[in-house]
Write a structure and sequence with these properties.
The complex is a heterodimer of chains A (206) and B (93). Chain A contains six helices and two strands; from the N terminus they run H-H-H-H-H-H-E-E. Chain A has 206 residues and is mainly alpha-helical. Chain A has two domains: 115 residues, no CATH class; 79 residues, no CATH class. A two-stranded antiparallel ribbon of chain A has the order 1-2. In chain A, helix 4 crosses helix 6 and helix 5 packs across helix 6. Chain A starts with a helix and ends in a 10-residue tail after the last strand. Chain B has one domain. Chain B contains three helices and three strands. Chain B is an alpha+beta fold. A three-stranded antiparallel sheet of chain B has the order 2-1-3, with helices on both faces. About 6% of the residues of chain B have low confidence. In chain B, strand 1 and strand 2 form a beta hairpin. Chains A and B meet through helix 2 and helix 3 of A and strand 1, strand 2 and strand 3 of B.
Chain lengths: 206, 93
């Protein structure tokens, strides 16, 4: 029991570390993406500078009409750059969403891994019951109490009592439930004592 | 015949030095929103070259106009061909 509790605590600590590193990595990558996004899009003046260069390089574009057309070109470029700026904002919001989703996925993943990594110490009898149930589960079978008792004890099912199988199930449930609750809810800290494994903010007195 | 030609050339040369007026055409811009213009401007004799004209013109342009380039320097004979292109900026500054 003490071994169990210690390993659960360790896995929780390493899990917390994985979550912290993961969140940091996700945030760092997406922050870099955001910086690149903002630095690589052309600024609002890029179009004006391009039009200005066309005007300087081409001496033929000096009539009033062609100058007017160049100005209109610059204005439409400016309008387009405003559109680009709004795209940039949208992309940035999407990046924020992606960050949030990745962080949430990581947290859920680690939670699931922690649940799957729980170790249980079972008595020989409970182990037998569990293996009978697991075998039946693989064949998609449902077992009655008498059938369970017959498979464990080796006697024919007709000679077994339903209550004996029910007792085996009850014992298995008790020991599994106890250990699950002791790992997830009522913690045993080695050599120190017992503690509720919950955030103290979630306790409400009514 | 040759003499006559030389005389004509000399007369033309004299005439042009007599009307030593100096002009330049230039390109200018104004930001936000971008506006451009092509203009013709009169220069003092002291600044009668493409290089020297730039600072002179840049100083005289007002109202937010910024000089982009001095295209060429010419005398009165070049005025008429540029008048319509320069439009309202013909000898304005």
């Amino acid at each position: 029991m003490r071994d169990n509790t210690t390993s659960a605590t360790e896995s929780r600590i390493s899990g917390t570390r994985v979550v912290q590193f993961g969140i940091l990595a996700v945030v760092a990558i997406l922050a870099a993406a955001a910086i690149l996004l903002f630095s690589y899009l052309p600024d609002a003046n890029a179009f004006n500078e391009a039009v200005e260069e066309i005007f300087v390089v081409n001496d033929a574009l000096t009539t009033t009409e062609s100058i007017r057309i160049l100005e209109i070109l610059a204005q439409s470029g400016t309008t387009f750059s405003k559109v680009l700026a709004s795209y940039r904002a949208i992309i940035f919001v999407l990046i924020l969403f992606a960050t949030a989703l990745l962080v949430a996925c990581l947290v859920f993943l680690v939670t699931i891994v922690t649940l799957n990594n729980m170790d249980f110490k079972l008595t020989a009898a409970a182990m037998e019951t569990l293996s009978v149930l697991a075998e039946a589960r693989m064949d998609d079978d449902v077992l009655s109490g008498a059938e369970i008792e017959s498979m464990v004890s080796g006697r024919p099912a007709a000679d077994c009592e339903e209550a004996a199988g029910a007792t085996r199930i009850k014992r298995l449930r008790d020991t599994l439930g106890n250990q699950m609750v002791s790992e997830l809810l009522v913690k045993n800290i080695a050599r120190r004592g017992y503690m509720l494994a919950i955030d103290k903010n979630v306790i409400k007195m009514t | 015949m040759m003499k006559q030609l030389l005389l004509t050339l000399a007369l033309i040369g004299f005439a042009s030095t007599a009307n030593a007026a100096c002009y330049a055409d230039y390109k200018a811009k104004m930001d936000n929103p971008l506006r451009l213009h092509y203009g013709v401007i009169e220069l003092p004799d002291s600044a009668c070259s493409v290089g020297a004209a730039a600072s002179n013109i840049a100083r005289r342009l007002t109202g937010g106009w910024e000089l982009l380039e001095v295209m060429s320097v010419f005398d009165e004979s070049g005025l008429e061909s540029r008048r319509s292109r320069a439009g309202q900026y013909y000898l304005r500054y």
